[in-house]
Every structure is written in structure tokens, then in C-alpha cells.
């Protein structure tokens, strides 16, 4: 079975990017071990401190963030980091060629119930003019990413990654510690009968999503003339993994609760990397108004609405916005 290294070489990734990704994944392997220890490691539960987004941090969030930060700072390949768990940009090496954005632990409320969680990351070039502590360099559209992916900590630890030449899924062989290519060049089915949305927010949704979901729920008696099933992992990383494996549509739409928060998910380290993976697998990723990867970020923790998944179904959803 092919190893991660040879697939990245075959896809034409430059050596320094390959070395950076290997470093990042060494951190993820350590997170995978910590996560698998669960309550035994004494790492679960809340620290009762709040992160920049006002959510209570779980200890594993803090630990995962520290692991990735330390390993990337020491590597020399990275000029600066932006992380869900850091208020500001973290300066690294002045000569580092890359910028890394990550959500160290996505779906962290799932840690308490031993359910799916993961790390999401995106990598872009660091401009030469940039000072390592300057957040401005992170404000580039997702179309500038050179690599993106996630590591899913489930019954097995899996990596989904793209360097712009297709999306590949690897499985961590825990006997020797390497990621092996188990699902090369995946293609998301264009059609689906499965959708994911947190329906408890329904009263807050904007009208196009209200109308679209109502038509899905109407099943064979409605205009879509087919019955849909619903799935919700409560961790974007788990929902997107299901979509990559068998298709579907995932939505965290704009809702009317707080005009300052256009959606829940963060552009740099949640929406953009998932959009890159999805597009490279033949799917689509939109805000409802345009392609996620073309959104120009205004700040590093910016939130965006997300409509992502099987091509025909995302297009059907977007037709409600016309
Ligand atoms: O079920 P909810 O509360 O609507 O939120 C679920 C969403 O929140 C998130 O967990 C946010 O990620 P974090 O755990 O990194 O804050 C997404 O992964 C997920 O899709
Ligand atoms: Mg998250
Ligand atoms: Mg998180």
C-alpha cells in the first residue's frame, strides 16, 4: 500500500511542504494517542477558561493546540500560525515559507461522549514582506491554499488531504506509525439523499434554507420527489468525512441570531480547508452567495455560512437563493 510520502511526491508537492506536512502529522499522531487515552489520561473536562470566541475550552483543545504550536514553531518551515485557540497570530520562524491555520480539535464537545473529533488544517505561502506577527498575511482567499486536510480521530485515525491534485484518504497504521493510502483520489457522488443540518436552529435560518429543507422533508410528496435521510455528528470533521466517503450535503447556514456572526464555522481553519478537499473530490462548497474559497477574509477568526457536498445537491440548494 502506498505511503503518504510517495503520494505527495507523485502529486508534485515541493520538498519543504512535504516536510512541513510530516511535521504537522507527527503532532496529530500525538493528539491521536492523547485522545485515545480519554478519561484515563486525565485530560478530559473543562478548564473553565474561555477562548477568544467565548466558548468554554476543553482541556484537550488546549493540549492539542500546544502540541501543534510547539512542533510547528520548532520546525523552521512556518512563519506564523493562526489557531482557533489563539486570540492572535502566533509568530514562528522569520524565514519560514508557510502559514498554517488550524482548528486543533474540532467537535470538542464530543470528547465527553467518546465520539468523533479531529484536527483541521490549511497551509498557504507566507509572503516575503510579512513580519511573523502580522495577521494581514492570513487575509488571503482560500484559493491561495497549497494544502489542506483533516485528521479524524475515530475507531481508526484517518487523514484526508489535498495538495491540489485530488483528495486522498489515508489510514494511520498504528503498528508502525505511518499513514497509508487507503482511498486514493476519492470522488464524491454527485447525487445524494442525505442531508446534515442542526435543525434546532430552524427558527433562525434565512428564508432560502427554510424553503430548501422544507422541500427535503416533504420527501416523495414534495417537489424533490424523493425521501431524504438526516445525519448530524456535531463535529464538522465527522460530517465532512461521511460526505467524502458516500456523498451528502452539510449546511451551517447564515442565521438571524447575531448579525456579527454570519454562520458558526470559521473561514480560515474550518470552511476553507473543507471546501478545498470537497472541490478536489468533485463536490461544491458555497456560502449561499458564492464560492467559499473566494471569500476575502477580514479577520483571522471570521465566520462564514457553509453549504457543502455533492455537486447536484449543493446546486439544488443554491437555486433557492436565486
Ligand atoms: O451542534 P452545534 O452546536 O450546532 O455545533 C456543531 C458544530 O460546531 C463545531 O463543533 C465547531 O467546532 P469546535 O468544536 O472546534 O468549536 C463544528 O465542528 C460542528 O459542525
Ligand atoms: Mg471546529
Ligand atoms: Mg476546535
UniProtKB/TrEMBL annotation:
Binding site for Mg(2+) 2: 103, 106, 270
EC id: 3.1.3.11
Manner of cofactor binding, per the entry note: Binds 2 magnesium ions per subunit.
Cofactor: Mg(2+)
Domain (Fructose-1-6-bisphosphatase class I N-terminal) ranges: 5-184
Protein known as: Fructose-1,6-bisphosphatase class 1
GO biological process, one term: gluconeogenesis
GO molecular function: fructose 1,6-bisphosphate 1-phosphatase activity; magnesium ion binding
Recorded coiled-coil stretches: none
One Pfam family matching this protein: FBPase
Binding residue positions for substrate: 106-109, 198, 264
Compartments where located: Cytoplasm
Keywords in alphabetical order: Carbohydrate metabolism, Cytoplasm, Hydrolase, Magnesium, Metal-binding
Catalysed conversion reaction: beta-D-fructose 1,6-bisphosphate + H2O = beta-D-fructose 6-phosphate + phosphate
Binding-site residues, Mg(2+) 1: 84, 103, 105
InterPro entries: FBPase_C_dom (IPR044015), FBPase_class-1 (IPR000146), FBPase_N (IPR033391), FBPtase (IPR028343), Fructose_bisphosphatase_AS (IPR020548)
Leading EC class: hydrolase
Bilayer-crossing regions: none
